[in-house]
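Quick one: Two component transcriptional regulator, LuxR family from Actinosynnema mirum, structure tokens please.
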Amino acid sequence: MAVKVLLLDDEELVRGGIRLILESDPDLRVVAEAPDGSDVLDLVERHRPDVVLTDVQMPGVDGLEVVRRVTALPDAPAVVVLTTFDLDEYVHSALRGGATGFLLKDTPPRDLVRAVHVVARGEAMISPGVTRRLLLEFAAEPDGRTEARRRLSGLTPREREVAEAVGRGASNAGIARELFLSESTVKVHIGRIMAKLDAANRTQVAITVHDASR
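--- reply ---
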């Protein structure tokens, strides 16, 4: 079954280009698009997308508000922020708000397609290098570091190992190889970690791990 994508961007030319790239893969389908997030909840309800790709800066309802509205839904689709700059403070806010990750608008077509598939499987799609730069740019305040360490203290030693691997940007398969676990066991651990940390997704787990290491 094809991965369904909802695309939000105020530039029609950009939307058209992204649609062409995504639909070059027979397993991806753009089910709807809009110039901003004004109707995002209606579009999600009507089309049931697996992934929402949203620009950050749009007239009307912007990408940060899209993140807030969509991630508050039960059984919400993954939300990925589109941006021109990889160290955009709006992107950092979106990740903390529950977005699964972000894509640069100059991402090579093959990587864009792969990223959407990764996100649809429930994994973060930010590359480890970009994640490190983003988190270094917006380092946690001391109080945030203390709180992150307190939250991580509630994890078991194995859960802590898995969380730290997530913080390095490892995929489920990579974590399984590193820790000699099955992928299904890794998924169980990640589910428990997210529950204990009150994290909406693995990106927020990664942020907590990095905050605790400041």
